[in-house]
Amino acid sequence: MTNQKKGKNTQDLVVKSNRIITAFQNLSLTEMCLIQLAIVDARDTEHGLDVNKPLNISAKRYAEVFDIQIDTAYKVLASAGKGLRARYFTFLDDTGSKIETNWVQQVRYVKSEGRIEVIFTIAVVNEITRLGSHFTQYDLEFIATLNSIYSVRLYELIVKWLSAKKTD
Q1: Are 14 and 138 in contact (CB under 8 A)?
Q2: Which of 144, 157, 130, 139 is nearest to 29 (CA)?
Q3: d(CA 127, CA 168)
Q4: Could you give the CA distance from residue 53 to residue 115 in angstroms, rounded to a whole number?
Q5: DSSP 3-state assignment of 121?
Q6: How far is the C-alpha of 128 from the C-alpha of 27, rounded, in Å?
Q7: What is the DSSP letter of 8?
């Protein structure tokens, strides 16, 4: 993939709240990649993120974006889906109240079609779609070739702080 200048093409733009960026620290690399691909594909397909509609993530698309073998892609997706079902995170909402939530409410495995379907929880959908303030964005291609969870986290933190006007 070629790097694209900011504002030129938003096709693979990952946008999420800074609270989600912080919560990503407890995810595996494949779980993080699955969520980022789901964010991009939800916008690209114009289905959006909805707690009542599953998002389809195909092994073929995952393999293309993250440069892995297609034979392995479904196994990686299935493992990431299972991991996301078991994980939760905590954050403070706008009123300062503590929220504890899972990442996904449902994962459906459609092995015969080489895809999985995920439905995010309300809190995750809200944090990905509320873009009034305190959000970070970058092109998916910039993290697609990173092969370490630490390199992806570092990249997201750098992007997050580059866009900050000031630190508290």
Answers
A1: yes
A2: 144
A3: 21
A4: 15
A5: coil
A6: 16
A7: T
pLDDT tens-place string over residues 37-75 = 888 887 766 666 778 889 999 999 999 999 899 889 999
Cβ neighbours for 135, distance < 8 A, ≥ 6 positions apart = 15, 16, 17, 18
HSE (side-chain half, CA atoms, 13 Å) at 42: 23
pLDDT digits (tens, 9 = 90+) for 123-164: 888 877 765 455 666 667 777 777 777 777 777 777 766 766
Q: Please, where are the H alpha helices in the chain?
A: 18-23, 29-44, 59-66, 70-86, 122-129, 141-144, 149-162
Q: How far is 104 from 154, CA to CA, in rounded Å?
A: 24
**Rounded distance, CA 16 to CA 12, Å?**
13
